[in-house]
Amino acid sequence: MVFCQSLVAAVCAFSEHLLAVLNQFHSVGLDSEQDPQDQQEVQEAGRRWLDQISSAGLMLHFQSLLSPNLTDEQAMLEDCQVALMDLEKVTFYFLQFEGEPLVANMPMSFQVEGSRQALKGYYYRDNVSVEEYQAQINSSSLEKVKQYYKRLRLQFYLYAKVTILI
């Protein structure tokens, strides 16, 4: 159970940080009030973070209020230690979306496969900005509403036709 919780915490923290960095890359230049020097610094910081995690890996911070002096809590700390050591065997891969996204209304999603001995996390990201992605979601949703309207109209037409015949 501890490994599952550690893995979910690691994946969520990594996803949020990665999404923030990618959004900074796409939003640079959109804010006309922002200083160009600041924009370059933001992009450079994001690029350095991506270089760091690709070469050294992701650093996670673990904090606990458990006491190693109590027997029950010592066992819990040992479980946490094993789970955190197992996180070293997790590898992330980045892939482009092929077809529909795995999670609706999200510019990035992930899928995890494997076992505790060798776990692979696949991150899927579309190659468009957040604004373009929102436009894609809106157009897709509009198409679904139109299809629903056609089905509803057809059902109403068939119901009205049957009612009149009876």
Automatic annotation (TrEMBL):
Superkingdom classification of source: Eukaryota
Molecular-function annotations in GO: GTPase activator activity; guanyl-nucleotide exchange factor activity
InterPro entries: mTOR-Rac_regulators
GO BP term (any one): regulation of signaling
Protein known as: Uncharacterized protein
Signal peptide: 1-20
GO CC list: plasma membrane
Keywords in alphabetical order: Signal
Record organism: Dissostichus mawsoni
